[in-house]
């Protein structure tokens, strides 16, 4: 098991009443201000009505930019939890602040049982857990193979899965449009679905099933290893 993160509180989550801690509210506000004012980004959200009001919910997304957590954390209409790489918790004050943003530190270099336990606890409390299915940021803007851990969390957590795709934020798109004409960011929520987990223990296959639903929400050129027929709804 990975060693404890210095500065991360013993009591987690900070609030367990499905309301946002003040640190979460501040981070969401700053994220929205940055996207709207400083980066001059246009944002379009599609399918927000698909978001279930209640959990447990596994929010499964692609990941092409460091802006993705800001976009989803800043604009998701209900309280989210997220798994974030341990490297972000480089100092005690940062660890304390991220804990208040409902971010769970995870050691990507091995099996982090503490992070998995915290993530499953979120789902058992009928919370909403955001996870990037590829495990890390895609450098070329296309979908890469999903991490098996996504399948494990889905299988053990028994949550409804909400696929979501973020496009228009990768560096290649920014270069094509130019410095002063940023591409439009599109957040597209799919239809939530239940996994048939009867007798299934193949976590990589479960992860692939979830990632394929995410890929269907992306433009065909961005679906990578999960090609699908038909463009997403406009």
UniProtKB/TrEMBL annotation:
Limits of the Phospholipid/glycerol acyltransferase domain: 57-169
Signal peptide region: none
Gene Ontology BP annotations: phosphatidic acid biosynthetic process
Listed Pfam families: Acyltransferase (PF01553)
SMART domains reported in the protein's UniProt record: PlsC
GO MF: 1-acylglycerol-3-phosphate O-acyltransferase activity
Entry keyword annotation includes Zinc: no
InterPro entries xref list: Plipid/glycerol_acylTrfase (IPR002123)
Origin: domain of life: Bacteria
Keywords noted in UniProt: Acyltransferase, Transferase
Stated name of the protein: 1-acyl-sn-glycerol-3-phosphate acyltransferase
Source organism per UniProt: Candidatus Aeolococcus gillhamiae
């Amino acid at each position: 098991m990975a060693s404890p993160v210095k500065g991360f509180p013993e009591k987690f989550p900070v609030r367990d009443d499905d309301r946002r801690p003040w640190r979460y509210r501040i981070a969401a506000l700053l994220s929205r201000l940055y996207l709207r004012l400083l980066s001059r980004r246009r944002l379009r959200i599609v399918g927000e009505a698909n978001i279930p009001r209640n959990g447990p919910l596994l929010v499964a997304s692609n990941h092409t930019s460091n802006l993705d957590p800001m976009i989803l954390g800043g604009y998701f209409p209900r309280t989210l939890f997220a798994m974030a790489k341990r490297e972000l918790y480089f100092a005690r004050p940062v660890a304390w602040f991220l804990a208040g943003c409902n971010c769970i530190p995870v050691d990507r270099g091995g099996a982090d049982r503490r992070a998995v336990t915290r993530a499953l606890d979120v789902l058992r409390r009928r919370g909403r857990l955001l996870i990037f299915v590829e495990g890390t940021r895609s450098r070329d803007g296309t979908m890469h193979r999903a991490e098996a851990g996504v399948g494990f969390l889905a299988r053990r957590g028994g949550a409804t899965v909400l696929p979501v795709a973020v496009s228009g934020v990768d560096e290649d798109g920014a270069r094509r449009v130019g410095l002063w004409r940023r591409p439009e960011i599109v957040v597209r929520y799919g239809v939530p679905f239940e996994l048939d987990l009867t007798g299934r223990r193949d976590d990589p296959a479960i992860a692939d099933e979830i990632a394929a639903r995410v890929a269907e929400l992306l433009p065909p050129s961005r679906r990578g290893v999960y090609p699908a027929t038909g463009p997403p709804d406009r």
